[in-house]
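Q: what does this look like with flavin-adenine dinucleotide bound?
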Amino acid sequence: MSRYSRRRFLRQASTLAAAGALLPACSDSSDRAPTPGNAVVIGSGFAGSVAALRLAQAGIPTTVLERGQEWTVQGNDTFPSTTGLDHRATWTIPPSRVADGQGEAYAGLLENIGSPNVTAVCGACVGGGSLVYGGVLIQPPRAAFESVFPYLDYGAMAGTYYPRVIAEIGAAPIPDDVLASPTYRAHRRFIVDAGAAGMEVVKANASFDWDIIRREIAGEIPAAASVSDYAFGCNSNAKLSTDKNYLQRARASGFAEVRSLTEVEMIRQLDAGGYAVICRRLSAEGETLDRYELVADYLFLAAGSLNTGKLLLKSQQAGELRGGNDRVGQGWGTNGDELLAQRHPDVGGGPQGGPACIAAVDNTNPDYPVAFMHSPIPFGGTQLQLAMSVPDELGSLRYDPGRDALAIDWPDDTQTPSALARAASFQQLTAQTGGAPTPFISGTIWHPLGGAVMGDACSELGELHGYRNLFVIDGALLPGSAATVNPALTVAANAERIMEQLVPRVLHG
Ligand SMILES: Cc1cc2nc3c(=O)[nH]c(=O)nc-3n(C[C@H](O)[C@H](O)[C@H](O)COP(=O)(O)OP(=O)(O)OC[C@H]3O[C@@H](n4cnc5c(N)ncnc54)[C@H](O)[C@@H]3O)c2cc1C
């Protein structure tokens, strides 16, 4: 039973909002007693959406702070097209974050964080990565999972938490009639080629509404997902991002409020317990509207690997988080990702049907299994696969106060056994297809993971060592790898696992 009535939560929320709007950025919150049992979630991507729903369902007053905009499909030009990108595609706040200050500031969908040898990208909107991702929700194989997460119970993940996320989002594998339609030729070729190369073909769940895709294929609505134009949001509304399921249900409970265009700048530990969260409210053009503080008894960090890392490092360096934890920023990695392309003689010339939803696993090297996710593209002639293996090397994150920016220290991992295993598996694949490897985008990473790793910087429930009631619940917890597959399902399922155990603690103290 909740200790809170809905009316009491709404009164508290409006009082906090009113008080917050009047506070300067760095006012001292230590004289304000924290509201008992309230929760603040930073970030509204996969993990933040899970946390918001589970807290709100339990009647816990919850405020979700999200730096990006809320995007609602209102016609075919809601999102930028993959083939004609514009300012809506990129988070350029402040503009100095891109190309030496060129360009206008805009709260666009995707943030790029560059370093000399790797660029990592992540979502920046209500729903976070779930709007800009490929839609693949795939469960890791047991052996790889157990090597990466020896402290987690694979049976519980596979039996309870993975299915829970799939059901909540409404994801499903590609139906046979869609796979059989003409634009899905590249998928069909991949299934044949991977099978002939001795790989295990897996139909992954995709977080897309296949009935909407059927209507695209039938020509009833303009094509988007069915021609692989869905990377920056999907204009046909087929993508089942978490704003349409988890977050929508959290809001409907009456116990969760989502504040978009609200960037958390700092976290301050309070002497009386709890945390002050320093927020900047901004316009879509990046102008500061005001700053305020929120006080949280229970603080959930779900800003994604890169920005959870940045916030923790920045707040520790500023002396605002004083618990000390020198493992923050460590254990960061690229999920062992490598985007590999081949000129393929038989995938056809036009746009390829999407979304990504067919994987192939090569187990011939037992020490280094490699999974390929077939990644359809909006043009023909080329077949693209994302290869993933468990990396041998990990890097780290640093905060640069001069630039108020995150820096990534990344080792050269091009000749590691893991990288060589990817190359060998790809050769096995191209030997079947007669395709010629061809350069594609390199050095851009879609799956940044780690920086506040479980069993290292944090407990297995995500509690940051040295900081009571401060929980990391997102991709920062994963040690640079999601065990040879795309990470979102594991990020969300791990958040489900954690929230199941934490909600009673928040309710009962
Ligand atoms: C182009 C692309 C394609 C991808 N495709 C796939 C795929 O098909 N399958 C898959 O499994 N994974 C995919 N991923 C990866 C997947 O999106 C991430 O692993 C996942 O989103 C991580 O979830 P998260 O909860 O850790 O963080 P996120 O989903 O990134 O959410 C973090 C949220 O926090 C917000 N935030 C950050 N800083 C602040 C701040 N200071 N204040 C307030 N809010 C803040 C962000 O705006 C964002 O909304 C893809 C990623 C990209 C970029």
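The first strand starts at residue 39 and ends at 42. The chain has a mean pLDDT of 90.
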